[in-house]
Amino acid sequence: MLGRVNHIAIAVPDLAAATATYRDTLGARVSQAQALPEHGVTVVFVELSNTKVELLEPLGADSPIAAFLEKNPSGGMHHICYEVADIIAARDRLQASGARVLGDGEPKTGAHGKPVLFLHPKDFCGTLVELEQV
Question: Quick check: 104 and 54 in contact, CB under 8 A?
């Protein structure tokens, strides 16, 4: 069911500073910042040859990233995103096996313009999992 790792997401308290660290200190290629109001975040992607790193900053007080940063003020790994060929088939298979899909269970459009779902971290070894249809 799982394809390749699409990205690893890191929550950061200061997106501009984190972007500068990856771009200027590590020499990485980074995208422009993109606001995603539906998800409550602003993101920047660090482009690597084999995957991406997504830097997440809260967008608004109700952002789930704001709550994460309250517990982890310096930031840290937030989730890992895996690619799937058919997100509805993956969701149905996971729910049938007892996995919990967060939200209403319907895919939302993610930062790449593709359908995404999030899976409860308690069902996946303490890690928040995002699935993205490719």
Answer: no
Cβ atoms 65, 41 nearer than 8 A? yes
Tell me which CATH code domain 5-133 carries: 3.10.180.10
Three-state DSSP class for residue 123: helix
Domain boundaries, the chain: 5-133
Are 130 and 79 contacting, i.e. CB atoms less than 8 angstroms apart? yes
Among candidate residues 54, 57, 130, 132, the one labeled active-site is: 130
Contact 27, 72 (CB under 8 A): no
H or E, element range at 10: strand 5-11
Residue 38 among the catalytic residues = no
Q: Is 0.90 surpassed by the pTM of this model? A: yes
Per-residue pLDDT tens for 15-40? Answer: 999 999 999 999 999 999 999 999 99
